[in-house]
Write the C-alpha cells for this entry.
Amino acid sequence: MSHTLTALIADDEEAPRAQLKAALQQAWPELQIAAEAANGVDAWDAYLEHEPDVCFLDIRMPGLSGIDVAKRIGAQTPVVFVTAFGDHAVTAFEAGAVDYVMKPVERPRLEQTVERLQARLQSSATPTLPDLQALLSQLGGSLRKPAPLSVIQAAVGKEVKLLRVEHVVYFEADSRYTRVVVDDPVTGPGEALIRTPLKELLAQLDPDQFWQVHRSVIVNHHHIASAVRVDEGTMVLTLRGRPDRLPVSRHFQGMFKGQ
C-alpha cells in the first residue's frame, strides 16, 4: 500500500488504551495511531475527522457504545472490538462476523488479528458482511440506553424556550454553538442556538428519526424532500417547504440510493 495506514483507538479507561497502543506498536509498527478517544461520542467524531483505515473500539463506553460506533461505520472500515473477559458479546464475535481482542491484550492474539486486518486491507475486493448489521443490532439491543431526548432548552435573550425535538428540522454545528432549526406547528418556523455540541446531541437523539449526513449536520429525515448529486463527489439535501440545502459528506452518501 502506498499510503501510511492509520488507526483509531477508543477506550474509556486510559490504562487499557495505552496498553493496546503499545502492543500495536510492537505487532504492527507501520500502523500510525491517528486518534485516541475516551468515549463513543468522541470516537465517532474522530472517525469522521480522520477516516482511519482500522478501528479498535471498546464495547462499553459512555455516550455511544463501541457497538453504536461500529453500526455507524458499517462495512467501510474494519472494526476490532476490545472487550473484557466474560463479556456476553464474545460468543457472538466467535461466529466470525467481526474480530475482537480481550483485555488485557495478549500479543499472540493481537498478532492474529493484525494478520487478518492486513489481509483484508490488501484485498481489492469489498468485504461482504451480510450478518454484521444484524449482529451489531442484536448486541446493541442488550446494552441499556436512556430514552431519546424529547425537549431541548434554548436560551433566547432573557427567555428559555422549550423546543420539542419532534419539531426540529435539523441541527447544524455553528462555531462554538449548535444551531437548532425548528418548524413548530403552533408557533411556526424558528431557530435557536444551544451550547451542547452536535456530537453530544447525536448520542441523545433517536437514530430512526434523526440522520447524521455530515460531521456538522443532523437532519430529521421526515423533512427531507430529495438528495441531489451535484457532481461525482458532492451531494446536497433539499427540504420540504424550505430553501435550505444541507451538505452530505462522502461517508453518508451511500444512505441515498434510488430503488
Remarks:
- The chain has a mean pLDDT of 87.
- Residues 28 and 171 are 40 Å apart (CA to CA).
- Helices lie at 14-27, 40-50, 66-73, 90-93, 107-122, 132-141, 198-202.
